[in-house]
Specification:
Chain lengths: 624, 376
């Protein structure tokens, strides 16, 4: 019967715990268990309606949620193209047989896969299908009166009653109070527990009869309920007076806002993804890049991005600075305080000096520029046998460990009799391992050295297919120096020049600051920058915060109905006061609220508080 | 920096003292549960002697739902005397009398617990006292670690475990002021013991400066709120486990032919009913869920600043999302007919397992951007 009293407000799917139960009339649009709808005899439309109701039911939403959780897990077990493209390549080489199969079921793109998309799209359809009718229903509820006072308040779980003996009447002093447990009391005729009378009687006004006193009591209750935020309505009939009150509409509002906010997040992500773009670019000290498609080393535009009309600006890396930990023995060489000092410039304007730091992106023209990485870019000059310069460039070497042992590739395509490829290691502080191999023992430039293995042959760049500048395809080349050859690898310190093998010419490791007292500035640095444009981020945040606010009110604002009923007794000497409440959703404070109302209402009528207050919320927690 | 090292040494010493105290607290709480079992048996014997009285009120008892039993008369009576009390209670209070039919303690909860034999509560009190003491040492250790490191003490796995368990214990102790959850003490002390002791052994790292990407105000907010929600999830987890045990016992109680051994752990009789445990678990879970939602949002804001995107399905992000969805599922399950009760309790347990998995396995073995375990 409690289920019936709850009816279906706020409106929920049929299998919601507070939803319409069998037999009770369901409001328009709610799924009811009136049998016939599910019958296949209704044909196609019937089946469609049946399917829609299934989709928007609580159970389906729950199953979809659990499926979503399970479906998200593979993306953390297998590398994803979106988050870790190199991991996917590695996976292919480690598991050459398994990888193509996994790829065929979108395991490397889980979050864009058909099956993952199907789950969340269904979930959101289910969500919208559930929330829309509820919003309509709630909108109506917001503008309607609290419902009529139930005839038998004593049937509700939280019910209290007391007898108000009017002053001057016989046996006037007894005040009773009791709580009845839900569902067990057989009606509204519970005997009040009467205490022998040394308590003060409540006051009836002079000349007031019991009915007038009862009406006044309800007036008072109405006032009190309204002032504590309840919406109230009077229902007086056949000698009884009652007020019906409801509060916590915000709970359902919050619930709807939470779900609508999630839809907002999804839509913002979906649309924003199409308008967003991300590009990476390595910039060496003293060089610039321009925000055009051609100037990026990698660029991922969303589907609606007009790549020809990116905001035009250029950025020059003036200097990159960082600090090394030298005091803490457990973190020697740890690099901190990375700062890229840059100049940005719009066409026809003066350059502006700015900085890019970790956690502090540079904002320009709706783009965010992030500092993702850094490394050394030795300047290398190659001369042919006649001393003519055939190659002169800063080459970014990618760091391989914490001490900045770095790997780089030099490709000399023209000017020499053969094409030349050099695979080099750069050690900012060179040290020799016991095995004789070199390593770096500190990330700063203390004793920098460059070692190079030389390959000659076909670089494979003449066919017009773009090749990574960070990889050398040696399949068509011959190794001239280093391991497996008779010739030792080339070893060069800053400022030094050594001969290339076979009399091909010379190679110089330029010192960027030849006059320096030490090597600290001898090699240029580079930074790798990520340029990101995503206007949707703000919207995603707004919707997410909206969702959070909705969640908080939906979970923590109690929604409840309260009733106070006053019935003058037949003899006209007293009034029977009843207090009852009904939670709408989880409400641990319900019993306390009824008790508080009874207390304050009794006090305002002049009924003294009952000393022996024996009650607890049976289903709730037991207080210590 | 010799001073910093000394402070860190002090921190380690305090943490280990706390670990020992947690172990003692765990033992005290375990003894308490044992005493509860004994008391429950005594009560059962007493209930057997009151056979006749039970029959008298049987009809009224049958009408009352489980857990609705905290009638007016039942709280103030001694646990063992329950049958006497119900025998004199008027039929209209019959819900309370439901206890005589084997639900002895389910409805009355701690009311019965506190009123019963003093010896039992002594052990629980000792457990709580030791827990408070351990907490103070733990707090001291955490603060000295923070001072030694000159930053918030939650930026690697060791420190995260340190602060995380501290929050679990803190939330438990604060909640104790309002609710008597001392039956959870074994679990909380055990959790603190295993997580703190385990991480002190396995995850300990020397104080090193903060990696650059971690130098953000969001480290303070995002990670701290994550520990806080973990603490609430832990309490919800414990209550959900007890809820399942209690539900099983309540189910078996209704089968008179079941073997006594099969009726579940005896101390459960002194605990609130499954419904009450569930409603309490739910309340902690939703607080945890709200904090977790905030953790997700704060993390996204930080990721936007640090990595140039607010969401990228990094492994840690995936698991944070999975946990969020699991608890969202739990909240929905509790509102779905046929899922409230045992099934939703399982979701709460799975959710917390995912939290622990996210903290341990994902941190140590999964590749990703959140590689801040500090372990090499």
């Amino acid at each position: 019967m409690e289920q019936q009293a709850r009816s279906t407000d706020p409106m929920r799917p049929a299998d919601h715990i507070d939803g319409a139960s069998g037999g009770s009339a369901a409001p328009e649009g709610t799924v009811s268990k009136d049998g016939g709808v599910a019958s296949p005899a209704l044909g196609f439309v019937g089946w469609m309606r049946w399917g829609w109701r299934q989709l928007t039911s609580m159970r389906t939403a729950l199953i979809l949620l659990l499926l979503l959780a399970i479906a998200a897990i593979p993306g953390s077990l297998v590398p994803q193209r979106s988050a870790d493209p190199n991991g996917v390549v590695e996976y292919y080489s480690n598991y050459p047989e398994l990888a193509p199969f996994l790829d065929s079921i979108s395991m490397f793109d889980v979050y864009a896969s058909p099956w993952f998309s199907a789950i969340y799209i269904l979930l959101f359809i289910s969500l919208i299908g559930c929330v829309l009718p509820r919003t309509k229903h709630h909108w109506q509820a917001l503008r309607s009166q609290p419902p009529r006072t139930p005839a038998r308040l004593a049937r509700l779980a939280d019910f209290r009653t007391r007898e108000w003996r009017l002053a001057g009447a016989a046996g006037s002093e007894a005040v009773g109070s009791e709580a009845a447990a839900g569902g067990t009391a057989g009606g509204d005729t519970l005997p009040g527990e009467t205490l022998p009378g040394d308590t003060l009687p409540g006051d009836a006004l002079p000349g007031e009869d019991a009915a007038a006193a009862a009406s006044r009591a309800i007036d008072l209750a109405q006032k009190q309920l309204r002032s504590s935020g309840y919406r109230v309505a009077r229902y007086d009939s056949r000698g009884t007076f009652s007020v019906s009150a409801e509060r916590g509409y915000l709970r359902e509002s919050g619930n709807l806002v939470f779900h609508a906010g999630l839809v907002g997040v999804l839509v913002a992500v979906g649309i924003g993804g199409g308008l967003a773009y991300t590009g990476q670019r390595v910039v060496i000290e003293g060089t610039s890049f321009t925000n055009t498609l051609l100037d990026y080393s990698s660029f991922n535009p969303g589907r609606f991005v007009d790549t020809d009309n990116l905001p035009l600006y250029s950025l020059t890396l003036d200097e990159f600075t960082l600090d090394y930990e030298v005091e803490n023995q457990h973190a020697i060489g740890m690099a901190t305080n990375f700062v890229a000092h840059v100049s940005t410039q719009h066409p026809g304007e003066e350059p502006k000096r700015e900085v890019v730091q970790v956690n502090k992106p540079l904002k320009i023209d709706g783009n965010n520029i992030y500092l993702l990485g850094n490394g050394y870019a030795p300047t290398i000059t190659v001369r042919d046998a006649a001393g003519e310069v055939v190659f002169h460039d800063d080459v970014a070497f990618l760091p391989q460990d914490d001490n900045m042992t770095s790997l780089g590739i030099v490709k000399v395509a023209n000017g020499l009799p053969v094409q030349l490829g050099l695979v080099g290691f750069f050690y900012p502080t060179v040290a020799e391992l016991e095995s004789g191999a070199l390593t770096s023992s500190f990330p700063a430039l203390v004793s920098p050295r460059l070692t190079l293995d030389v390959y000659e042959g076909d670089l494979g760049i003449d066919d017009g297919v773009p090749r990574s500048v960070y990889a050398l395809d040696t399949s068509e080349m011959t190794k001239l120096t280093g391991r497996t050859t008779d010739v030792a690898s080339l070893q060069i310190d800053p400022g030094q020049t050594v001969d290339l093998p076979n009399g091909l010419g010379t190679i110089t490791f330029e010192n960027a600051q030849p006059m320096g007292e030490n090597y600290l500035k001898s090699v240029k640095r580079f930074v790798s920058l990520q340029v990101h444009h995503d206007d949707s981020a703000t919207w995603v945040l707004v919707f997410a915060l909206l969702s959070l606010a909705g969640l908080l009110t939906a979970l923590f604002v109690p929604r409840r109905r309260m009733w106070v009923k006053a019935t003058p007794d037949a003899s006209g000497t007293g009034v029977r006061l009843e207090y009852a409440a009904l939670a709408r959703g989880d409400d641990p404070t319900l019993a306390a609220a009824v008790e508080a109302l009874e207390r304050s209402h009794g006090a305002s009528l002049g009924i003294p508080a009952d000393a022996a207050e024996p009650t607890t919320d049976a289903a709730g927690p037991t207080t210590k | 920096m010799p001073t910093a090292l000394t402070l860190d040494d002090a921190s380690v010493l305090l943490i280990w003292t706390a670990v020992v105290l947690y172990a003692l607290s765990f033992i005290a709480y375990a003894v308490d549960l044992g005493a509860r079992s004994a008391a429950a048996t005594d009560a059962k014997d007493a209930a057997g002697r009151g056979e006749q009285a039970r029959e008298l009120v049987g009809a009224g008892a049958a009408a009352g739902g489980a857990g609705a039993g905290a009638g007016a008369g039942s709280v103030s009576v001694e646990f063992g005397d329950r049958v006497t009390a119900t025998a004199v209670a008027p039929p209209s209070r019959g819900a309370g009398a439901g206890s005589a039919a084997g639900r002895a303690a389910t409805g009355a909860g701690s009311g019965a617990g506190e009123a019963s034999t003093p010896k039992r509560m002594v052990m629980a009190r000792i457990g709580t006292t030791l827990m408070v003491l351990a907490f103070l040492f733990h707090l001291g250790g955490t603060i000295t670690r923070g001072i030694a490191a000159e930053r918030v003490p939650w930026s690697n796995m060791y420190e995260f475990a340190m602060t995380g368990t501290l929050m679990i214990v803190l939330v438990y102790l604060v909640v104790l002021i309002r609710y008597d959850l001392r039956y959870l003490g074994v679990l909380i002390a055990g959790l603190a013991l295993v997580l703190l002791g385990g991480s002190a052994v396995t995850f300990y790292v020397e104080v090193v400066p903060l990696a650059q990407p971690l130098r953000s105000v969001w480290l303070v907010i995002h990670v701290f709120v994550a520990t806080l929600s973990t603490a609430f999830f832990a309490l919800a987890f414990g209550l959900s486990v007890l809820q399942l045990l209690q539900a099983r016992r309540e189910r078996l109680e209704t089968q008179p032919d079941a073997k006594p051994l099969a009726r579940g752990l005896r101390f459960l009789r002194t605990l609130p009913g499954a419904d009450a445990l569930e409603s309490l678990a739910y309340r902690f879970a939703i607080i945890g869920f709200a904090f977790w939602t905030f953790t997700l949002i704060a993390g996204s804001i930080w990721a936007q600043d640090a990595w140039g995107r607010y969401w990228g399905f990094d492994t840690k992000e995936v698991w944070t999302f999975v946990i969020w969805v699991l608890y969202a599922g739990y909240i929905h399950a509790r509102a779905t007919r046929g899922w409230r009760g045992n099934r939703s309790a399982w979701l709460s347990i799975i959710g917390f397992s995912a939290v622990i998995f996210n903290f341990t396995i994902v941190n140590m073995f999964f590749k990703g951007l959140h590689a801040y375990s500090g372990l090499t």
